[in-house]
């Protein structure tokens, strides 16, 4: 079930990043504005959710300059590829757990799964995780809720 996660980018991927980066490095300063990252990714036919970009922004632009270098941009692209691989793996796990193909997992099944993870979670911790995850109180967890639980978002 494990998705193929790249450790580093191929030469073709780096060239693709460079081409997109250059489109937004308008003054040839070897940096682009953080606000241009989503558009640069779009130029590479890669969609980025604003929430994801917000999460990784601070780790990439540690100096707070408002710009990213080509190296930082390729790091972001690699992070995006890893995030997509993780999401595909979680989608597959969710499909397996969604036995009735309803798009939701009963919280009782989720409780059983969390107990079996072997993370030495107490019953109280598991209940807190479930309550935090099933925020609408439906007694079920949809994929978005499951994803947030499994990725600690």
UniProtKB/TrEMBL annotation:
**Which Gene3D superfamilies does the record associate with it?**
EF-hand (1.10.238.10)
Under what name is this protein listed?
Uncharacterized protein
Q: One GO term of the cellular component aspect?
A: myosin II complex
The record ties this protein, via PANTHER family, to: CALMODULIN LIKE 3, MYOSIN LIGHT CHAIN 1, 3
A GO term, aspect molecular function: calcium ion binding
Is the Cell inner membrane keyword given for this protein? no
| Keyword Calcium set for record | yes
Which keywords belong to this entry? Calcium, Repeat
